[in-house]
Design brief:
Elements: E1 8-12, H1 17-28, E2 32-37, H2 40-46, E3 54-58, H3 64-78, E4 83-86, H4 102-130, E5 133-138, H5 151-171, E6 176-183, H6 189-194, H7 206-216, E7 228-231, H8 236-239
Parallel strand pairs: 1-2, 1-4, 2-3, 4-5, 5-6, 6-7
């Protein structure tokens, strides 16, 4: 996928900090953006100004029918979907494995893995019909291995990584690239509130992760399909500001 104008990118978790940064990054390339989030009010608060090249859709990504309707609406308006950024997800820190409640396990898998699966089930057939596409998932660099009291989250992000690798092998002959960016700590207002005493100098701004995702949507990146890319720290350009 080149950086030409008029590509259509679907971004899940569109109302969040990373979703908004990714929207801005793809807007700069001239892409049309389909922003999906379960929270309709938050979605409209994040994008209060209307735009002919941006579509806001409220959908439950754990419900296959809801996702299929959202993608059908996007295709009806813009004609295609070339890029899918699976950003929707959730985090949990709490109990050890033997004490963690089953509903926590289900929620982490739903938010991080099922949302991804639902989105690709709806989008991949559209990409296959067009003969090309890019899927970019979001993993977690620090959870390439398990950590105490975060097992449900680690397992869910582990599923995202393995799904990325599996889809890359399955879709390579279709010219559909599948990638996973793996942030450590994202520099968001919420994380700063949750960790007020932390050293934020090595945290990664959402805008830097978004720029990396734009790079992975280029045609030249297809040769790296299946890659799990750690994204951490602050780009030099931001450090000097």
């Amino acid at each position: 996928m080149s950086a030409s104008k008029d590509r259509v990118v679907v971004i899940t978790g569109g109302a969040g900090q990373l979703g908004r940064a990714v929207e801005k990054a793809f807007a700069r390339t001239g892409s049309r953006r389909v922003m999906i989030d379960i929270d309709e009010a938050a979605l409209h608060a994040a994008y209060p100004t209307g735009s002919s090249d941006r579509l806001l859709i409220s959908a439950d990504l754990t419900d296959a029918g809801s996702v299929e309707r959202a993608i059908a609406t996007a295709v009806d308006k813009f004609g295609s979907v070339e890029i899918l950024c699976n950003i929707a997800g959730g985090f949990y820190y709490g109990e050890p494995v033997h004490q963690m409640k089953l509903d926590v396990w289900r929620r982490m898998l739903d938010l991080n893995a099922v949302t991804l699966i639902s989105a690709v089930r709806a989008v991949v057939p559209v990409m296959m019909a067009a003969g090309k596409g890019t899927i970019i998932n979001v993993g977690a660099a620090s959870h390439q291995r398990g950590h105490a009291n975060m097992s449900a989250y680690a397992a869910a992000k582990g599923a995202v990584m393995r799904l990325t690798e599996s889809m890359a092998e399955e879709l390579r002959t279709e010219d559909i690239g599948v990638f996973c960016v793996m942030p450590e700590i994202i520099d968001t207002p919420a994380n700063r509130v949750d960790m007020p005493a932390a050293d934020t100098s090595s945290w990664t701004p959402p805008s830097a992760i978004a720029d990396a995702m734009v790079l992975l949507a280029e045609d030249a990146a297809l040769i790296m399909s299946g890659g799990l890319f750690s994204v951490k720290g602050r780009p030099r350009a931001l450090e000097t500001k």
